[in-house]
Amino acid sequence: SFIQDMLDDLDISRIIGEMTDAVLYGYQPCEIMWGRSVKSWAIADIVGKPPEWFQFDNDNLLRFRAKDAGLEGKPVPLNKFVVPRQDATYDNPYGFPDLSMCFWPVTFKKGGMKFWVRFAEKYGSPWVIGKHPRGTAQGEIDLLLDSMEAMVEDAVAA
After folding, report:
1. How deeply is 24 buried, as exposed, middle or buried, from its count of CB atoms within 10 A (0-12, 13-18, 19+)?
2. Closest CA to 31 of 50, 52, 13
3. Are 27 and 84 in contact (CB under 8 A)?
């Protein structure tokens, strides 16, 4: 009854949604907000916090990256945080983020098409070569180059 009443007061859908960010980022620190009920202390809310605010020490204990705490950070209070993690090990307490598998495909998708268009234009089609007679004035050569550059982006010669 006490547990059921406590769970009824929580926004379980939001809490589960915040905790499932651990799949994307590897881990998701969630702060437990305690509140006093009539009989005892109970969980009032669980709030997800940004993972970049936290780190793990050599003993795999969660620490808060406070500005005044230096590189090692401040230890968090006992029973104040729950940290869902995905595929965490002793060697890697941060877990395995699924978004890490998306970086290179997204990067290649964004830059790949631009690269291949330029590559195909430069090496996959004939080069534009303008010919002029010997002794042509530099102004006319520059005009020829400018008109050829308007045709293609790379690989022009005069």
Report:
1. middle
2. 50
3. yes
Q: Provide the 8-state DSSP code for 43.
A: E
Query: Within 13 Å, how many C-alpha atoms sit on residue 33's CB side?
Result: 10
What residue ranges of the chain have pLDDT lower than 70?
Answer: 125-126, 153-158
How far apart are alpha carbons 54 and 87 in whole angstroms?
18
**What is the residue-wise DSSP string for 95-152?**
---GGGGTHHHHHHHHHHHHHHHHHHHHHSSPPEE----TT--HHHHHHHHHHHHHH-
What pLDDT was estimated at residue 17? 94
Nearest alpha carbon to residue 52 among 67, 62, 65, 33: 65
| pLDDT, tens digit, 9 for 90 and up, residues 37-62 | 777 888 899 999 999 999 999 999 99
